[in-house]
Design brief:
The complex is a heterodimer of chains A (about 240) and B (about 325). Chain A has about 240 residues and is of the alpha+beta class. In chain A, helix 3 packs across helix 4. Chain A starts with 10 loop residues before the first strand and ends in a 12-residue tail after the last helix. Classes of the chains: A alpha+beta (about 240), B alpha+beta (about 325).
Chain lengths: ~240, ~325
């Protein structure tokens, strides 16, 4: 595996009496994800029902096992085996892309103007720039179904808001740094809002629960207000939406 | 499968009472946190004293204030923190099982020793599992008695799963079970919290490491089920932020202000601050019973020792 991973990696780091942190990479890169998704499956197969949880994220995989049935030493041995036999998931140009319809509008995306100003582009150019590429899901966190995706065009890079909002409406599509996401539910949040998706991002009654999963490819597709409403979106502007 | 029946009615809610099973697992990769009892020890004993298996949902009562009326004869036990509980106004003895008759009133007042009491009922509280668990996480709107992540409110009915032999026709007769003295923790004593050093421990300055493990830390009032902030001399780490990665239970993260935060059951699933290491599960339980202002110490322990302690603890409970 030499050459694939940075020097000294992959590495297994202690993470409590029931966990190991598998560190694969040292920088954010979309290409990391095919290794992480492959390692997730390898761990599921190697640990079976002795596995408690897995948290893949950007460059690492946190593996939590049942400490009553497995010692950290035994868990480590299995992880070493998983890593030794690991090959990345196939990267194909026709890999499925999940589409998130977005109504980009200042009434639901108050920072469209800020991104236009920061980038020197018009609002329409900002929208085109955000929606003309597919993104990879690096991790889910912050809230159930909240997907950290990247990387957005460098021209759209924007710092978080100085003061986070106390209530960001569900479905809000947002940019922070060079990442983008959509808020699955009403939560506080400090990202730049540029539009809103009618998609239900987290549904406790759906198989798999979260629309987006780590490693997914995602594209934002601009839609008009009428289509947004037809798809069940809540068009109320920021100050009215609850 | 036995149908659930009404067991207790909430007549006063108190600040925070949540139904908790052993926690939600298998969905952390979706950003869904673990939940579960903040004090595993007290929760496990309450269940054990009424003959419930490990993992049975029990109530976590934080600060007190909760008042319940039995809607049928029940066998219950209160363990964990002493919140000056009473039964029909008379002091209730914790750490042992007792019989409740329909109409009897169980009330929690204010913390006397510890912060969280656990109430278990023989057969277990019944609630719809959400994402495989009834663990109540308010922030996520998941689990709890109603499945929607709500804390208990006045007027709520708590359903219970009666035992086969207990059809509710007559008062339940079961010999009281009592926890041994060594299981009853005096939470007012200074706590020593075992910690397993983590990968970034070498990034902290020598002086900071000396302070971390040799000076007392004060439990800050910024403490909840997500995490407990510890106040003391600031710790310095060469790494100030990292690419976000999964965080395990008990991880002690140190943000740039140098004040450590021990992350508990409702923590976010990923984060990017360097960590001293991870408190053991039983250290998390102990910390969760500390009131703001209390003193705690961190003690580095080897994994083998922590694992043996945890397995011994678990071997008590079926």
């Amino acid at each position: 595996m030499s050459g694939t991973f940075p020097q000294g990696l992959p590495r297994l780091e202690p993470a409590g009496l029931d966990g190991w942190m598998v560190r694969l990479f040292d920088a954010i890169d979309e290409a990391n994800m095919s290794w992480l998704t492959a390692l997730v499956r390898a761990c599921e197969a190697a640990f079976g029902d002795e596995l408690i949880d897995l948290v893949p994220s950007y460059t690492t995989l946190l593996v939590i096992f049942d400490p009553l049935r497995l010692s950290p030493v035994e868990a480590r041995r299995r992880l070493v085996e998983c890593l030794a036999g690991l090959t990345p998931d196939e990267e194909t140009s026709d890999a499925p892309v999940k589409e998130l319809p977005v109504w980009y509008d200042a009434s639901v995306g108050p920072e469209l103007a800020r991104l236009a100003e920061l980038s020197g582009m018009s609002r329409d150019e900002v929208i085109a720039c955000h929606s003309d590429r597919s993104y990879r899901v690096f991790a889910l966190g912050f809230a159930p179904g909240f997907a950290f995706m990247g990387s957005v065009d460098a021209r759209l890079e924007a710092p978080r808001l100085e003061t986070p909002r106390r209530r960001v409406p569900a479905g809000s599509v947002a940019v922070a740094g060079r990442q983008t996401s959509a808020y699955p539910a009403v939560t506080p949040g400090g990202w730049n809002l540029i539009g809103r998706t009618p998609a239900v991002l987290f549904d406790r009654d759906r198989e798999g629960f979260s629309l987006l999963q780590v490693g997914d490819r995602v594209r934002f597709v601009p839609i008009e207000r009428a289509e947004f409403e037809r798809l069940g979106g809540d068009p109320r502007p920021m100050e009215e939406s609850r | 499968m036995i149908d659930a029946v009404d067991g207790l009615r909430v007549t006063r809610s108190g600040p925070l009472a949540l139904l908790q099973d052993a926690g939600r697992c298998g969905v952390r990769r979706l950003g869904v946190t673990q939940g579960g009892p903040a004090d595993l020890h007290g929760w496990a004993w309450a269940n054990h004293l009424v003959g419930n298996a490990w993992g049975t949902p029990a109530l976590e009562v934080t600060f007190g204030g909760l008042e319940l009326v039995a809607e049928r004869a029940l066998v219950v036990a209160v363990a964990g923190g002493d919140l000056a509980a009473t039964l029909d106004g008379e002091p209730l003895t914790g750490w042992r099982s007792l019989s409740l008759q329909a109409g009897q009133r169980l009330a929690f007042a204010t913390p006397v020793n510890g912060l969280r009491a656990y109430l278990a009922v023989a057969g277990g509280f019944a609630a719809p599992p959400v994402l495989g668990s009834v663990a109540c996480v308010v922030r996520e709107g998941l689990g709890g008695h109603d499945g929607q992540g709500h804390r208990l409110a006045e007027g709520d009915h708590l359903r219970v799963t009666p035992r086969c032999a207990d059809t509710g026709r007559e008062a339940v007769r079961e010999p009281p079970r009592e926890a041994p003295a060594e299981a009853r923790v005096d939470y007012r004593q200074p706590a020593v919290l075992p910690l397993l050093p983590g990968a970034q421990v070498g990034e902290f300055s020598g002086e900071s490491l000396y302070r971390a493990f040799n000076m007392p830390w004060r439990v800050d009032d910024r403490a909840d089920r997500m995490g407990v902030r510890l106040a003391g001399p600031p710790l310095h780490c060469r790494v100030t932020s990292m690419i976000s990665e999964g965080i395990g239970l008990g991880a002690v993260q140190v943000p740039p202000d140098g004040q450590p935060i021990a992350l508990l059951n409702d923590r976010q699933t990923i984060g990017g601050y360097p960590r001293l290491g991870a408190l053991t599960p039983l250290a998390c339980s102990r910390l969760a019973q500390c009131l703001p202002g209390q003193e705690v110490r961190l003690k580095a322990v080897p994994t083998e020792r922590a694992l043996a302690d945890y397995r011994r603890f678990r071997s008590t409970f079926a």
